[in-house]
Amino acid sequence: MSQNLDYSETFYRQHARRYAEVSHNFIQSVYIETSHPALRGDEDLMDRLQELIPAGSRGLDAGCGAGARDVFHYWRQGYDILGVDAVEENILEARRLHPEIAQRVSVADLRRPLDYPDGSFDFILCNAVIQHIAPDIALGITLPEFTRLLKPSGILQLMFKTGEGVATVYDRDYAADRTFQLYDPEEILDLLVGRGFRIVPAEGDKLGGVMNFKDPKPMDHCVFFARKSA
Ligand SMILES: C[S@@+](CC[C@H](N)C(=O)[O-])C[C@H]1O[C@@H](n2cnc3c(N)ncnc32)[C@H](O)[C@@H]1O
User: Fold this and answer.
1) Which of 11, 16, 173, 224 could form a cystine bridge with 89, CB 3.0-4.6 A?
2) 15: domain range?
3) For the whole model, what pTM was predicted?
4) How far apart are CA 142 and CA 114, in angstroms?
């Protein structure tokens, strides 16, 4: 990974098993101060994505994390989902915990073009990953790759930490300082809208629109579902 963000690689190499435990127990997956009343945690996003995308659809979890919790979840729900992550230990942890999806997870770096043809996926999840990628790369390579890889009308679920610059916080679940790249939602939305995406709006009490929340660290986040043009 890039030299200026190599703290994330070191962190995940050292904490892969613990990360999988925290993730699978949804320990950091409870949100506070959410902008949408139906958004209380990761599981609400999973439920909503399943309403937007029919089972059987092909998906990619970009930066699936140690243990690939969400790849396993969507696979069990009948989705044809793959997961990639830059850190080999994270993928090994996914294969250890979930041998059923061992062939569905692999090492890949989102700072480079991915080895899939255009229009390979009906949906892409990218949750809390660009926080580890420098903005010029995230905006210049990673997000454009997602637009290339999605089929027409495909859905991108994107979650990122918001603010300006880089922030370091103490994470008590790992007894470690962690450093994150923050993003301005407007900049990301401008890029996606400029490439033909539309934010999936809130419908009644269903999740949608540009949603904000804090995680337990606490850090500010933005999350939305964006649909590629038909
Ligand atoms: C906070 S974790 C999020 C994991 C998962 N998406 C989730 O929501 O639980 C961030 C993940 O992004 C991965 N990551 C960071 N930079 C990456 C890159 N350039 N390419 C692929 N994965 C990357 C890390 O290895 C880590 O597993």
Assistant:
1) 16
2) 3-227
3) 0.95
4) 9
